[in-house]
Structure formats: C-alpha cells, structure tokens
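We read letters as residues; the fold follows as tokens. Both lines appear below.
***
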Amino acid sequence: MKTISLARYRVFEGSLILINASFSYHDTVKKILKPIDTDNKKLFLEKEAADAFLMLMSDIGGWKEIAAVSGWRSINEQHDIFSSSLIEKGLEFTQKYVAFPGYSEHQSGLAIDLGLRQSDIDYIRPSFPYSGICKAFKDKAAHYGFIERYPKGKEGITNIAWEPWHFRYVGCPHAEIISKLGITFEEYHDLLKQYEYGRRSYIYKDSEGVWSISYLKACAESFTNIEGDPGSTLYISGNNSDGFILTELKTKEKRA
C-alpha cells in the first residue's frame, strides 16, 4: 500500500469542486488554461475540460452550428457582467442568471456556455434547444465528462434558473452517473457523502471497468492520509468545502 498525504488547501482543487451561492471559488487554485476556439482566442477552459470539449465537438461536427459563448472568466470580468446585468436587466433577472462575483463556475475554467451560431447571440441567455446539433451535444456530453449544470425543475436546489446552454465539466464516470440518476451536482455531492471512505463505496460499471467512489472528510489541522492500492488507478478531487472525492478504477472488465 502507498500512503498519499493531502494538504488541507487541496479540498479546493479538482474537477469535482462544487461552486454555488454557498461555496465560493478559491482563485488561488492553480490551473492550466487552454484556448478552445480558433475564431475567438480569448475563450479558454481548464486544460482537461478543454481537451474533453474539443473531442466532443469533433465527434459531433459541432463547430459549424455551435458557438462557444463564454468559458473561463476572471473575477473582474464576472464583476463587469454582474454589474452590467443589474443596470440593464435589474436585480431579479440578475439573481436568476448571473452568479455573484467569486461564486461563478466560470472562474474555475470548468464551465462553458454554448449557443447556436447566429448573427446575434444573447451573451447571458444564448439559444441552445433540445433539437438538432444542440441535442447531439447534450446526448454525448456525459460520455465526455460534461453535465447540464442547471436543469429545468431543479431551480430550488441550484438556486439558478434553468440554463440549457450552461455545461460543467466534472469528468468521467461522474457525468454519466449524474445524468443517469437525473440529479443535480449538489444532489450528487450529498449522495457521495453517504459513501464514507474505508466503509463503503458507490460502485459504477462502464466500458472502462469497475469504479469505486467514496468521500473522505479532510483533517482540519493536518494532512489527510489515504492508503492507495498499487493495483488500481486513483483520482482525487476536493469538494470545495470539507473533504475529498476518491474515484478508483479498480478492475478492467474483459471485452468480447
């Protein structure tokens, strides 16, 4: 067994961090940004998310009809968007569709807004219907690690209005689990806290093999230690509050 020691600050890192009105994004987190649109060199995503997004767009031939509207944003840009929306649209609209600066997923580089490619695209609420090429994107999104972050009917949980254009990278197999269960990212975090590391795990099988997922509460004043299995592949992400999500690919299933 190999011991892995995690510093407390690492709860704020990783593709599974939960960012919402209750949990702010920690801008001190190190990330590598990658451009995602050759037509707009100011559009970036975190590298892992960018690679997955570009593969998805290539898979469906999406660039002819889909435009990347907004990716990574600095906190200053989020301030500008929030302030402009307040002036132009008012408080009620802004609270529904624009995250308060410091609490936006876009600051992490893990979120992207998409819209149909047309002459006039609404920056705050771009058109992204459940038909045509947009449906093709939605159908493939989970396979590449993306979820529709703010689904219809879940506004009371996300505290954000329905946004069919906003997608969040959480990686695999998490996106597939969330999509199949029909739950929000908030509900997924609540679910995983029922699977405490060392006691029981959430088991999920896909074409890659058998995944074991669990939650580990971080030590408040010292390093958190994990005993890794040399015979498996372990992915670790913070949850942005009090602990870590451990995702272990335990066995490789045999294919016919």
